[in-house]
Batch of 3 targets.
Target 1
Amino acid sequence: MQRNILLLLWLVIGMFTSISAYAKVNILLQKEIQKSVVSFQKSSGAPAIVMSIKQGDQVAINFVSGTTLKRTWKNWTPPKVTISSLFQIGSITKNFAAAKILQLEAQGKITINETIAETIKKYGQWLPTVALEAWSDITIKQLLNMTSGIYNVTENKELLTEVEKDPTKQMNINDILHTAYSHRPYFKPGKGYHYSDTNYIIIGLLIQAITKQTVSAALSATIFKPLKLTNTYYIDHAYSPAIYQRMAHGYGFVYLVGEGLPTSKVGKDMTRFNLSMAGAAGAMVSTTEDLVVWTHALFTGKVIPKQQLQEMQQAVCVGLRHQCESGKPLASDSHAVGYGLGISRFYVKPFGECWTYLGGTPGYYALIFWSPKYNLAIAVTTNATTIKSQKLLPLVLKTALLLTKQKQGF
């Protein structure tokens, strides 16, 4: 009996010793990650950076550095950024929009192989006649994976000059579409890959036509509310005072895609930039904590069924470094960079296949990352568009590598 008690005592002591050692590793690891976050924030010139990490079913661990406003001589001690501060997430909005379309497919309301013309027969004319004539044979899948060939409105100098003159202007969706269909397509549908925000502006109109709701209401009903993403909003108009008060102010410039790329300068306050031009291509604001919950839920089958998740992950070649033929489907074991349905795929050791999205608006960058091998989701946001602040992926990979070196993780 006494031997059994001593054995039990030894096991208990051993257990608490292990817990103590684990806690020590955990604290040291978090300190190392916080150090990287602070270093990135200071070197990038961004006023703030926020990162959240979620491994498996564990609660997200959060890291913050900086302030919600740029420090100036008039305001030398601006408010500190918190995990509840809102950031524009730019093109990560496309990931949500693609998931919504795939939910509608799972419900039998649409198939992604239908053409725009076929959806018009089902749901009425949801596109202007001229646009329909130009794009009728394009499939929903081609819109989602950027193989439609449709002109990208964010490459249009005249339109962006108009936006630059008045960033708060509420843009008319028909004017944006007119700019798109007035330009020749990059290629015939399915014959190449070209990133085009216009594709997802159209997707937003399709979501409205099918659900008979605004995009905001449609996303809220089947994504935001079920996942309890209480700090995530789709806002394609001027911010309300309540939302504006919660925003980490973003600093940057309106610049043409491919020209005037981010500089080392922090730029001017672009927080009130009206995202009506972006629509379902980029009109969301969120927190990193919500974004890691979203990323984990999406890739673990809690948002769309297995069939639709597989469709989302069927990537096409983006033509980077001539690794493959642009627009062609990639094999599941390909190491080439690819684009699925609202998500990007890449391969890197030791993680293998990874999924990510970098979103950007004037004044903000945001990134989500998923490693299937390590069941690891990471999200990061920052509130300035500088040369260094856009390099979020190297920071995320460095963080993920720190985690993988510790078998226990957090």
Target 2
Amino acid sequence: MLKNEKNRGITLIALIVTIIVLLILAAVSIQMLTGDNGIITNASKVSTSNAYYSAEEQVKLTYMAVKAEISAKTVKSGTYDPTVASETTALATIVANDLGANQTGSKWAVDGSTAGTIKITYTDSKIDKDSIGTVNLATMDGTTVPTVVPTEEGIVHYKIKLLASQDAKLYTDVGVGETASEILERVPAMDARIANAENAEELAAAKAEKIAYYQSIYGSVVNYGKIIDTSLNNCWKIFYIGTMGDDTENHIYLIADSYINNSTNDFPTKIIGDTTYSYNKNGTWKEFFGWNTSSGIHRAYTTGIIGSSYATVNEIKKLNYKYFFVGNYTGENHSNMRCVASMLDTNIWVSYMDSTTNGKAKYAIGGPTIEMLFKSYNQTHGTNLGEKVISEAGYKINIEDNATTGWTNNITSVLNTTDTNRLYVSDIETIYATAYWLASSAADSYGDFGILCVNNCGDVSYSSFSDSNFGFRPIVCLKSNVQLEEMPDGTYELR
């Protein structure tokens, strides 16, 4: 008798369960291979890191070779300046040879065309800037460099800065530009040569070198991006680099090369409650601060509205350091300071910032102060113009900063009107204005009505704030880590 045999095949439910388990295992395996911490991803990161840090080690070795060459030449000649063009080129050749930059297919490129700076570029497709992440780097001598992220895919920038003090510094991953502090690193050596000059000829040459250095930078056009007036071919120019007052942080300051068009929408206003206070934009520039109108901009800065000196941020007050901190004046109840306060109110000039969150600008104001103007002009012309605070009404000025007499409210033709860059005296005065206001008050015969200004003849003078035909050239302060990168046409990009 035959026995019935059971079918022993896989049931549909068991098959489905098996498939689900296999899918889960596959997903886990794929994640382990390709996820953020996966085997393949980590292997890629290792490859990126190896390529990146291998390049960094190579450039550090060649940097040490440059340092050794500088030291050897200094010992041999007694005095040696690696920042002159011919020596920069010679040192760049050493770098290129050490890195094999001249070999076919090399990943290295070396540029020594800028006196005092050797720029090095390493290109490798294995370098993924996102995989490297932020890198907290420092120069080899311990000078800290801001935490940065490599900015270009597959490209890393290095820079060896040659210093006139027979030294050099290596910067990595900070781009090919220079911050305000880097630009000023060469100045102490120039000051030392001035102080140590043994005769009149050496002194004149040392002073000329320093003036030429500032002239090569100040007045240069910067591609900042904010339009002053679309009807004009205008731009922003480097006005001053350094500190203000007793601040220790260096900044780059830009100035608009044209006046604000009185029809532009970027003219600042200040709103307090239901009232909008504004400048008089009737096309005549008459009483531009609106003294005779109830909603004139100066009326927003009465006692108690903003507080002592109408500018509560010390960084802004230090732009007029001698007034607020040396003289310890507040400016309250002085009519001219109400007008100056509107120029120093960073809250109403924000339209001239490239961004209020993550841009290059730290703040913008309505114009330079007398202290900033004279700092800049003295650097580029070797003059010794000075300003001092006479009273709470404001400043007086002099052609000699340390003079005991001759302090005045007006110095005629003191600023050079033949400078080709027209940095200090705009060449388009007759279009919108014949002078621009400085963000500093004047102690003058008007009592507390005077504001310092620069007119189209190169005079540094003063006028009543109700005067006509005066305008504004805004100032933008860039953040301290912003770099200037020179372009082949002599303009600068911000990095």
Target 3
Amino acid sequence: MTTRNSVKRFHGMALWFALGFCAAAQAAVDFVAPPPAKGFAAPPLPEGPLYYPTGEGHEIKVVVVARGLSFPYSIAFLPDGAMLVSEKNAGRLRVVRNGVLDPRPANGIPKVIANNFSGLLDIELHPEFDSNQLIYFSYNKALDEGTAVAVARGRWDGRDLQDVKDIYVTAPGTTAGSRIAFGADGRLYVTIFGAFGNVPQQGDVVDGKVLRLTADGQIPPDNPFVGKAGFKPEIYSMGHRSATGLALHERTGQLWELEMGPNGGDEVNILKPGANYGWPLVSTGRNYAGPYQTKAFNNVEGMEDPVIYWMPSISVSGIAFYRGDKFPAWQNSLFVGGMRTGEIAGTGRLERIHLNADMQEIRRETLLADLRRRIREVAVSPDGYIYVLTDEADGALLRIEPSDRQTEKR
């Protein structure tokens, strides 16, 4: 694993300013791009199951569990076997019981502000859910001075959320997506988008940061920037563009962050306290008009390198480690959702990245590409199945399971 000299992560920024790189890097990403390619239309999802061979030699079966979800964003598994699914644009929390989508949304979700990147976002169960029934979610809300990213929690009564309240709300003007996850330390980690300008490198705002909070939304006293002038104390790491996934690696206790680049430069990072992940000073991506975002790619003083990256981009969203027993050959695999490849519509896929014992990439495999759907989320259920959400007005919940048919040996 390479790093951008994490030992000197706090001092590297001074070097950048002294060399005059910062002024060039502050230029906003160029969103003026040539007209998009026509792309590909997505075929209808079949009523019956789909079967696919895989690179590890076993066949998989893919079934549609639920349809009619409005731009679904996140999945959470309840101990009783039910699943919760957030609908980003509609601002609804849906329940899937015994493989059937309940037509009645759960009550308790506050009003959300929805657009391309905003709405009802991530869902996460408290680590002690069995005893406290607490469910956390991130969403975008309206304030008098503008929109904000909020994290709220409520008590699940089996049908609805009760006693819902915000535990953390950003300053007005903070918009777009957010992912949340509890770390091995019991703290709640919250991602905030930072795609525009130089805000990911500014310590006085939370844009382009990963935040670390207590389960009550307070600031832990051991956060890396507590007491540092010019820094928000809730910041855990900085220099992030558009974080679209968080996954805890249970064996190591490390939290892995998935981040969408511009036209290329998607990446996976291992989060470290106080670390700077470079955006917009360092990127492997191009801006939307074609030129590289920056001349600095990796091994930059004071910056952390990604452990995995994509060029061209697959518009990453959703990340999960496989930890079940249904697919033995997929142990040590990381799954990442992709919404489109190389800026061409209709090229979404699921990617499987096989890792060695040191968590280094060995090989990649593309799955579900023929569905031509934007894969927004991937999650592994407690019983070892893999679930994915398709990002569309008539979104679907899909389950990947071992094949149940006899096939010839390959």
